[in-house]
Amino acid sequence: MRKKRRRRAAARSEARLRTAPKRSGAAKRTSATPARLRPRARSRALEDFMARAYAMERDAAERYAEFADQMEVHNNQEVAELFRRLAEIEGRHAKRILEEMRWPQMPEPVYAFAWQTPEPPETAPVTELHYRMQPWHALALALRNEERAERFLESIARSSTNPREVRRLAAAMAEEEREHQRLIREWMERVPRPAPDWSRDPDPPVLGD
Amino acid sequence: MQNSGRSSVSVALAGSGGAGVMTAGNMLLEAAVHAGYYGLMTRSSGPQIRGGEAVAMVRVATFATDVPDDAFDVLAAVDWRNVERFADEIPLGADSLLVGDAAQGEPPPRLAASGARLVRAPLAAIAKAIPGGWPNMVALGLVGGLIGLPADALEAAVARVNRKGGEALEAGIAALRAGLAEARKIGPRYALAPPPARSARWLLTGNEAAGYGALAGGVRFVAAYPITPATEMLEWLAPALAQVGGTLLQAEDELASINMILGASFGGVPSLTATSGPGLSLMSEAIGLGVAAEIPIVVVDVMRTGPSTGIATKSEQADLEIALHGLHGDAPHLVLAPNSLADCFATTQWAVEIAEALQVPAIVLSDQYFGQARGVVERSRVEPSAPRRVLARANGEGYRRYRLTDSGVSPMAIPGTAGLAYTADGLEHNERGTPSSQAADHLAQLEKRARKLERFDCGERWASVEGEGEVAVLTFGSPTGAAREALARARADGVAARLVSIRLLAPAQPARLARALAGVRRVLVVEQNHSGQFLRYLRAHYELPGEIESLRRPGPLPLRPGEIHRRLVEGGRA
Amino acid sequence: MNAPGGAALAPQSFKSDIKPVWCPGCGDFSVLSALTRALALLELRPEQVAIVSGIGCSSRIPAYTTCYGFHGVHGRALPAATGLKLARPDLTVIAAGGDGDGYSIGGNHFLHACRRNVDLTYVVMDNHVYGMTKGQPSPTTEPGWSSRLAPGGTGMREFHPLVIALASGANFIARGFSGDPNGCARLLAEAVRHPGFSFVEILSPCVTFRPDQRAWKDLVRPAPVTPTDDPARAARRLMTDDGFNLGVLYKGNRPPYAPARAPAMPFSELEKEFAR
After folding, report:
1. CB–CB of B223 and C112 under 8 A?
2. In A, what residues contact C, Cβ < 8 A?
């Protein structure tokens, strides 16, 4: 019985991977919600786009939090705190999308959504970390994230196959990413440049199990 | 006593090159059971896979016994080729009878030197005269007749093996009857006394008994790697497990089999494997993992002569030390030893129960003697055990797999249960199971694991304690039966002596042993190994009263009642 | 099966609160990410999944998830996983570890796990080195790599695990790269879904002992072939494989090993064999 369910679930996931995420389950509808904001009034394309944007922000927030954990475990407190702040910021971006879309929690399409690129747009690969990295490095990493996010949103904004409302939203979000980049660059001015020997550690690695 | 028959006779059937003496020996045992007697069969053979020299050794008695007698009454040989190699295992005396086929030549000098009487019977010629007749069946009839087994019992035994009937059965019966006729020519000197009152009995080997006990204890997963002399236990378990809904998997090596059962037990299924000395050595690391991660498993070590490859087909009690101390680190665990063939059933079942209850590995020290001996025992009560593992229930709080409790036992979460996921770990850990290098955590967990065993109330099963007197025989495992018979003889001579045969070797039970030995002034420690492992164990964990003597001999020859009796009676020497 | 309300769990639900001790930059972080994504994609529940490992950096992974975990001894993840799966076929069992744990001390078990074809998934995080013990060559280390235990290199040809897996009977063989965690997530999900023994080798650079492996991201490529179910064809591919082709390379049709289960007789019947 469980095997059958699992197979069906797997088949469903498979379908989702190949096509655009389908909306499953009825979204909540109350009479108090104005007509233009009622879920049914929004196109599916818009929902899918916003779900993707939400996933991007949420993935970014989660990854920054993991980076913060790694830095903490490796006693790099300053950078840990910096990553935590970045995690908070991205978390707020994600939350804002939920609020705008009136989604009470993570939207259904996002569960099944899987990025086709190695990493989500606004998420840095873990290989960019170093246990002795400096705040400047962390901010440079964040800057690259924002640049990638901007490129991702721009490509959606420019693609003629997307409906107008989606392209408009994407363009607006891309502009926000440019603003973030400006803020990060300013921030980078305020932190010291890393010394040439920033990665030096006189102690050898330690044995484990 | 001679006129009313013997209470015990021991016979041996020897032959080589396809003579079929093992088959005949098994039939003799079946006939004995059929006639209402108790009995025991052990075997010995040359190193060849087939066609080698072989001897079937059968003891038939009016009382339950799983021990070889001091000497054999009859040795019947289909041929004498290489039978000399068994001379040490078939002690003969002036009262014994050698039966041989003149066409096969003279018995070997060592056997003849025993002073046994020689009688000739033309087994081959008799067999040849019967279409499809075999000399071993003639020998069966001859020996069966000599010891007074009724013809119908012997015929029933032959029929049991030749279920398909037909010519094989006819020939077998005919040869059997010819043998019986030969026996009548020789006379009833070795006839048994009448059998005891009927009771419900089993005929099985120690390996089968242990397997059966494991299933009764709830084992439903076994990983198997063949090794002499444990293989038969695993082979018995393979279909039996399937029949009761369990699984047996043959592993690629002992490292695999021990880890497989850890995985299965982690999944919530009581699990077991069986091996011998060399396999147990390989399994040490993973047994330690079971201790550290608190995963119950049972490992039956059917001990054989060591060290290293040793003598694979012979018994010894020299794995005691590795069973007790073979795990690195302080790794308290259970070590048990069945002390009779029948006890292989009950003690293996018990091992499963307490391993499960205490969430700890148990090593069961059986040996080749028990494992491969086939004997008649009183039927044991078969009560499948209720599950003993203490399971965790989700309660909304953070689950601590290795929570420090009074008993030391912390409820175990079984995969599949929501809210209780944890990682079982060989790394030292805190209560939650997270790896920890903190001194406090290590100490706390060491104490927890030790406490589990220290606080375990084993009850009366920890040992067999029998008899009274100022002399005590202290032993474990297979010499117990010989010790028991020795004590019976001593009592008949007016020497009172006690027997303490320890079943639960770890955790040691010093208070209980002190009570069992209260008033004892002389202790005879009996064991089947060279260096005195059991003696060292006793000295390490117990206060032994009075004079301590050691009666020990390594394998391959079993300890016999007579030698224990002699030491008891002579006494006073270390 | 699904979270309450019918929705699947997010990948984060499969991550425990225990912070990994891996060096920042370690590829294993991405494998953990990929694994949690795969489990979310498969709509499994953490308590239905057991992750079984041996010893090494990669083998630390079970405790970093919210699944049931078994952190066993060096080289023995596969037998433990096999025993667990056969005793509890209802669970999704994933064995995990590194190249030293899996191909050296675990080599024999690797062969037989492939051969047995029990429905398991085996993830090897291959970084061509023994990381946890400070940088010794592993079976997949190239012959010329110098280390303290083998100055100048071992001089021995490296082990080719994918070929061995195919020859031994694995039913699904794939290679991923930790630089593409989302791709690895898809591979892992497919591997778990595929019946029988699924072997996924994930190249996962060791930032501390093999900084030269930064070059891997430029060496890997999607395999220029589609998955095949023909062992001979797969053999030709794998024998000429340079170790950097990514994707599903073999997807076989062997039915998984699953012994009969239903009890055929009541327990009391067993006694009849011995009764006299």
Report:
1. no
2. 2, 5-7, 9-10, 12-13, 17, 25, 62, 66-67, 69-74, 106, 108, 110-112, 114-120, 125-131, 133, 204-205, 207-209
List, in sequence order, the alpha helices (H) in C130-180: 161-168
Among C224, C234, C220, CA closest to C30? C220
Assigned domain for A9 exists: no
How far is B200 from B301, CA to CA, in rounded Å? 29
Residue C123, strand partner residues: C96, C200
Q: Considering the domain boundaries, does residue A113 fall inside one? A: yes
**Domain range annotation of chain C:** 19-275
CB within 8 Å of A31: residues ≥ 6 apart:
none
- Name the one residue in this structure whose structure tokens are 């029929």: B159
> What is the interface pTM, i.e. ipTM, of the complex?
0.92
Question: Residue B532: exposed, middle, or buried by beta-carbon count in 10 A (0-12, 13-18, 19+)?
Answer: middle
In a domain, A146, yes or no: yes
- Nearest residue to C271 (alpha-carbon basis) of B381, B42, B231, B235: B381
- CATH of residue A111's domain is 1.20.1260.10
- Tell me how far CA of residue B364 lies from CA of B71, B202, B302, B565, in angstroms: 30, 22, 8, 28
Contacts of A94 (CB under 8 A, 6+ apart): A54, A57, A58, A61
Element holding B525 (H helix, E strand): strand B522-527
Residue B292, classified by CB atoms within 10 Å of its CB into exposed (0-12), middle (13-18) or buried (19+), is buried
Q: Determine the residue type at B45.
A: S
Q: Do A73 and C21 touch (CB under 8 A)?
A: yes
Is C276's CB within 8 Å of B201's CB? yes
The 3-state DSSP class for residue B40 equals: strand
List the pLDDT tens digit at each of the 276 positions of chain C: 334 444 568 899 999 999 999 999 999 999 999 999 999 999 999 999 999 999 999 999 999 999 999 999 999 999 999 999 999 999 999 999 999 999 999 999 999 999 999 999 999 999 998 887 878 889 999 999 988 888 888 889 998 999 999 999 999 999 999 999 999 999 999 999 999 999 999 999 999 999 999 999 999 999 998 999 999 999 999 999 999 999 999 999 999 998 877 778 999 999 999 999
- Going through B16-150 in order, the beta strands assigned E by DSSP cover 38-45, 54-61, 74-77, 97-100, 117-120
CA C25 and chain centroid, separation: 21
| Nearest alpha-carbon partner for B375 in B402, B406, B344, B411 | B344
Q: Where would I find the H helices in B392-471? A: 439-454
- State how many domains chain A has: 1
DSSP one-letter string for B163-208: TT-HHHHHHHHHHHHHHHHHHHHH-STTPBPPP-----EEEEEHHH
Q: Indicate yes or no: CB of C181 within 8 angstroms of CB of A119.
A: yes
User: How far apart (Å, rounded) are the C-alpha atoms in residues B142 and B121?
Assistant: 9
Asked whether residue A22 is assigned to any structural domain, the reply reads no
On whether the CB atoms of residues B294 and B266 are closer than 8 A, the answer is no
Whose CA is closest to B31, among B140, B179, B190, B133? B140
CB contact under 8 A, A111 and C181: no
Global pTM value? 0.91
Give the architecture-level CATH label for domain C19-275.
3-Layer(aba) Sandwich (3.40)
Q: Which helix (H) or strand (E) holds A201?
A: none
Measured at the alpha carbon of residue C186, what is the angle toward residues C183 and C190, in degrees to the nearest 5?
145
Helix or strand holding residue C56 (H, E): none
Tokens of B418: 């929501």
C194 in contact with chain B, both atoms CB, cutoff 8 A: no
- State which residues form the domain around A160: 52-189
